[in-house]
Amino acid sequence: MHIAASNDISLLVIKFRIRGNLIFLSHAEMLKVFQRACVRAGISVRYSQGFNPRPKLSLPLPRPVGVESDDELLCLQVSRDSCLDPLTSGEPQVVENQLQIKTDLSGQLPEGCELLSVSIAEANTSFQPCSATYILAVRKEYLNEKLKATIKHLLASKSLSVRRQIGVKDSRFKNLDVRDFLKSIELVDRGIIVEYIISSAGSIRVEEVLELLELDTGKLAAPVKRTNVQWQVSES
To answer: How far apart are CA 126 and CA 96, in angstroms?
Structure first.
């Protein structure tokens, strides 16, 4: 069996937006959506070796179920050929082919998934999220002094404890201090902008942010939206 060298492989980096009913798909379901769309669009995604080959595509920052997003990232490994290699086809042709990939793949995706850009990186490039920004659209009647006081209290606190479930199949919980992950909370005209840090030590979750703010879905005027993700890009 031929195993391609790293210089025979490219990484397609796709930015996209999620809206509508697709926000209720899980991380695994979103991967399946893109896997099927790539097959129909004729994009040859590389597979892992072994008895149970899997397509080499990933969503480096899983999106919480029920959350809209303007800044999602998909990475997939493909075989490098003349259409993706600027050394053999020239940079203008590569750009044109990236646009063609975007068009072909867009035509196979369901309504609610909009591709924003397609670019090419070296196969050993990795994307590690550093921070994410969310907008919480709060109903007008809850944009009050109580909410302002809650935000002020959270930002002034040296520690913020949340109770997090461990695993999916059991009911064990642990208490976590998430204050270091909460970078900023800003009250604006139509809601709240929250930015939080993502690191190897962990992060805070959307549902935990809502809990700390004493908000539930009934107090929101629209789904929570992820608007921006900061990435650390490196090559191994």
So the answer is: 24
**Is the CA virtual torsion 145, 147, 150, 152 positive or negative?**
negative
Contacts for 132 with CB less than 8 Å, ≥ 6 apart: 61, 195, 196, 198, 226, 228, 229, 230
User: Residue 55 has what DSSP assignment?
Assistant: B
Residue with tokens 């490219």: 10
Task: Encode pLDDT of 117-165 as tens digits.
Answer: 999 888 889 999 999 999 999 999 999 999 999 999 999 999 999 999 8
DSSP assigned state of 219: G
Q: Which residues contact 153 (CB under 8 A, 6 or more apart)?
A: none
pLDDT at 120: 87
CB contact set of 7 (below 8 Å; sequence gap of 6+): 80, 123
Tokens read off for 139: 């109903």
Instruction: Report the range of poorest mean pLDDT among 32-41, 63-72, 80-89, 169-178.
Output: 80-89
CA-based angle 214:217:219, to the nearest 5? 65
Full-model pTM: 0.87
State pLDDT tens for residues 40-58. Answer: 998 888 888 878 888 899 9
Q: Which residue has the tokens 């896997």?
A: 35
Domains recognised in the chain with CATH numbers: 6-123 (3.30.70.580), 128-235 (3.30.70)
β-strands 125-137, 161-165: how paired?
A: unpaired
Distance CA 198, CA 180 (A): 10
